[in-house]
Amino acid sequence: MTVPSDTNAAHAGTVRIGELSVNRLGFGAMRLCGADAWGRQRDRGNARRVLGRALELGVNFIDTADSYGPEVDETLIAEALHPYPQGLVIATKGGLLRPDRHSWVPNARPEHLRRALEGSLQRLRLARIDLYQLHAPDPNVPFAESVGALAELQRAGKIRHIGLSNVTPAQLDAARRVAPIVSVQNQYNLRERSCEDVLAACARLGIAFLPWYPLGGSRGLRAQKLERVAARHGVTPAQVALAWLLARSPVVLPIPGTQSVEHLEENLRAADLALTREDLDELG
User: Fold this and answer.
1) Is residue 86 assigned to a domain?
2) Burial code of 253-262, b = ≥16 C-beta within 10 A, e = fewer?
3) Which residues of the chain have pLDDT under 50?
4) Could you tell me how far CA 229 lies from the centroid of its own chain?
């Protein structure tokens, strides 16, 4: 498939991450690891090709986490892109452990978050993380203590901005009483909308909302209404799903991920897809 020469993530507009401005189609790097975000791909050069092409097409926001691999994804990003171009924002997360490839275990104890942050700095070859996100609340740790640990690291100059992931509106409010919060990353897509209230809170507060699993997987992309809208525009269901997210709110920053340069290019063409009122009404 030929990629239009003017394809660029900047066509989706921009969104603020604190005082930073990024193009409103980012890249989620989790899938650059092996299956189940565990280990490495066999073709280690593939990550370089995908990440390099993302930057060529205007992506200036990349999302990762220390638990992807674990500790593989951040290293891949540094190997592919360091020294980083000016304006590139790399966001990472801490607070989940991977004792095996099928487990994601919360650990948001302050001492763990401090170690996790230091590890991310080392792997990403950075002196400061532009956006460091608490990956998930830990039911065994008071939420304010976890956020407070990140606030301390921010005051120490190791974190520029703090974000949250997998939180409720009440947790967002609680975190904001401890430290400034610039983003929330929750699961959200055409099929999974259980955190509409979180998106509404982000829109009201003017903070970025990063929907993870933005395409909803292969099952989500087979929805008949999605296929009908895609057929009307002569585009793919994935492009419609991303354009729908962009239309939901100006604070939405989709971060689709892929192991394929072709799919990356396909996703970024969603920046030029303008859905009609008829389309939006049909998609709901």
Assistant:
1) yes
2) bbbbbbbebe
3) 1
4) 25
| Strand pairing report for 159-165 and 129-134 | parallel
**Contact (CB, 8 A) for 123 and 155:** no
| 163 domain-assigned | yes
Q: Is 68 tagged catalytic?
A: yes
| Residue 60: φ, ψ to 5° | -130, 20
Nearest-5° angle of CA 161, CA 165, CA 169?
100
Q: Measured between alpha carbons, how far is 17 from 1 in angstroms, rounded to an integer?
A: 33
Supply the pLDDT for residue 6.
86
What's the Cα-to-Cα distance from 241 to each of 6, 7, 172, 266, rounded to whole Å?
Answer: 21, 18, 26, 12
CA atoms in the 13 A half-sphere facing the CB of 204: 9
- 146 Cα distance to chain centroid: 21
Q: Find the catalytic residue in 68, 132, 188, 213.
A: 68
> What whole-number distance in Å separates Cα of residue 231 and Cα of residue 234?
5
Contact 34, 46 (CB under 8 A): no
| pLDDT, position 1 | 46
Q: Where in the sequence is the domain holding 164, given as residue range(s)?
A: 13-216+249-259
Number of domains within the chain = 1
What are the pLDDT digits (tens) for 46-80? 999 999 999 999 999 999 999 999 999 999 999 99
What is the per-residue pLDDT for 223?
87
* Residue ranges with strand state E in the chain: 14-17, 20-23, 27-28, 61-63, 89-94, 96-97, 105-106, 129-134, 159-165, 181-187, 208-212
What is the C-alpha to C-alpha distance for residues 70 and 58, in angstroms, rounded to an integer?
27
Q: What is the CATH number of the domain that holds 91?
A: 3.20.20.100
Residue 203 lies in a domain: yes
Residue 190 resides in a domain: yes
pTM score of the predicted model? 0.96
Containing 170, the helix (H) or strand (E) segment is helix 169-176
